[in-house]
Amino acid sequence: MSHQVRAVVARGKGAPVSLETIVVPDPGPGEALVRIEACGVCHTDLHYREGGINDDFPFLLGHEAAGVVESVGEGVTDVAPGDFVILNWRAVCGHCRACLRGRPWYCFDTHNAKQKMTLLDGTELAPALGIGAFAEKTLVAAGQCTKVDRTASAAAAGLLGCGVMAGIGAAINTGNVGRGDTVAVIGCGGVGAAAIAGANLAGAAKVIAVDIDDRKLATAGKLGATHTVNSKETDAVEAIRELTGGFGADVVIEAVGRPETYQQAFYARDLAGTVVLVGVPTPEMKLELPLLDVFGRGGALKSSWYGDCLPSRDFPMLIDLYLQGRLDLDAFVTETIALDEVEKAFERMHHGDVLRSVVVL
Ligand code: APR
Ligand code: ZN
Ligand code: ZN
User: Fold this and answer.
1) Which residues surround ligand 2, an ion (CB under 5 A)?
2) Could you give phi then psi for residue 185, rounded to 5 degrees?
3) Atom 35 of ligand 1: nearest residue by CA position
4) How many Å apart are CA 311 and CA 317, to the nearest integer?
5) pLDDT, tens digit (0-9, with 9 covering 90-100), for 317-347
6) pLDDT recorded at residue 353
7) Do the Cβ atoms of 301 and 294 come closer than 8 Å?
8) How far is ligand 1, taken at its centre, from the CA of residue 81, in Å?
């Protein structure tokens, strides 16, 4: 059997997305069919639409989602119909060199659903990040589903599936922020704002938010930034040093993805401090640093892939903290919209008006 559902499809490079009827197969072995309740609009969806990721049009967009498992295929035991789940980009394999060493968050052989979802004429769809959740239902590998507390709002929960998890994880997993640390976050969009919330959650003594947009700095304050710096008006490195006794922060998180801001992060940290790069650069970007400074300043220069998260460990934990009022995921939901308003949401995102627009079904 298969299911015909409404979904948001990007048919060609730069063309506005369209609402279409797609065909979703019943789950095969190891797969799960999920009825989507909410899905956030992310920059990556726009990158797909613009052909910036690859040319595998048509794309089924949407990947920051939560929903309810409707049915599962043969051999699926970790989730069952009726489970409220957050979707993640990739199911871990359990037997690659990373998995075998007990580091499944680095799994080098992840997978998605094997069967293809299609347009009505049979054209195969490429689901964004292996999910495709601007749809009433989607098909994923069962390992992409993590069960969490049903009482959480779907709009807030789904955000853990991508940008918000990347930011929180950059602070708590990659940066290892601990009680009493000083932290600076450069770039306070959805990812940076989440890094601020994560640093706050981890017990940072000072969280310095840096951005060139005062609207983003205002939100950063609400999420726990103790100080804000507009780096259009003030030198970011000097400001961060000044706020940390002249030394620099223990952990600096770069959530823009540009060489200039990376350089700021590099010099705004204390000796033996940590830089975490969670912003995603583009292929032509290059970084130049005196090698002596790399050596002499010590510490760690790290990249954070998807917040180095392990969904089975991090999603239920963060949802519990959210339900206890210790992590304000609702603050990331600027607006909720309908399935046919994704194109409008792209525009608002482009203008920097929102942290997240979330499609609620
Ligand atoms: N200095 C400081 N902040 C900057 C600068 C700069 N030179 N340039 C841009 N910013 C700020 C923007 O004002 C914005 O608030 O960085 C923020 C980027 O936020 P978003 O565009 O909302 O992006 P976000 O979803 O947070 O993702 C950030 O992480 O996942 C990656 O691809 C994503 O590279 C992107 C980064
Ligand atoms: Zn995303
Ligand atoms: Zn693996």
Assistant:
1) 42, 44, 162-163
2) -120, 120
3) 279
4) 9
5) 999 999 999 999 999 999 999 999 999 999 9
6) 85
7) yes
8) 38
